[in-house]
Amino acid sequence: MTESYELNGNVPVNQQIYRTLRQDIVACVIPPGAFLSEKEISARFNVSRQPVREAFIKLAEAGLVQVLPQRGTFVMKISAKRVADGRFIREALETAVIRRAAGVVTDHDLSLLAHNLQRQELAAKSHQAQEFLQLDDEFHRLIAQIIDCRLAWETIENIKATMDRVRFFSLSKVSPPENLIAQHYTIYAALEARDPDAAEQALRAHLQEMIFSITPIAEQNSEWFDVE
Asked: Distance from CA of residue 217 to its chain's centroid?
């Protein structure tokens, strides 16, 4: 958390702080239960405390931190119920998106997805977990982009923060990248065939991986999960 960060002048400061902290929380560089110091983070980004507070608010809305009056801001432990609820909402949105995408997908769209899948394979082979997760997100974002519905992906991204922490845990043992890449190729094949039923079925099977992952991950990392 002490590593300095060079800001991009073209992006609002609070958004950059939010995305960097979100990435650190998802990867458990900042573990569940950790205290977030406004002073330390302001120093890390070399900014005033106001954009840090704004980033904290956005992190709280995503279910990643809790702001406690008179006590401070803490990274929330992982809620199995919130993961399940997020997966349910994400599945409902993404299945609607992919059914429409299967009917309008172009060869250019398929080329972008194929290139992404190639990069996923390279990231998996080089054991770059963070890069793989970013490419995984990009794959799903590209599908939403096919139907020209930016709001759909923004909504999905906002509700899946807690899911992302489980995804990061699962890569090493429960859901290795190779399995996820194979599932992505099945989704790709259904889109290439312009088959909405097959596309929906492949996507549902892919997203249900989360249900199978949560129990063993919670057992292995019980101190980071809420007792519900």
From this structure: 17
Using CA atoms, how far residue 215 sits from 30, 39, 94, 180, in Å, is: 22, 36, 24, 18
pTM of the model: 0.78
> Class of the 13-75 domain?
mainly alpha
What DSSP assignment string belongs to 96-111? HHHHHHHHH--HHHHH
37-62 pLDDT, tens digit per residue, is: 999 999 999 999 999 999 999 999 88
Please, how many CA atoms are within 13 Å of residue 115, restricted to the half-sphere of its CB?
8
Q: Fold for domain 80-224? A: Four Helix Bundle (Hemerythrin (Met), subunit A) (1.20.120)
Between CA 131 and CA 122 the distance in angstroms is 10
pLDDT: which is higher, 224 or 188: 188
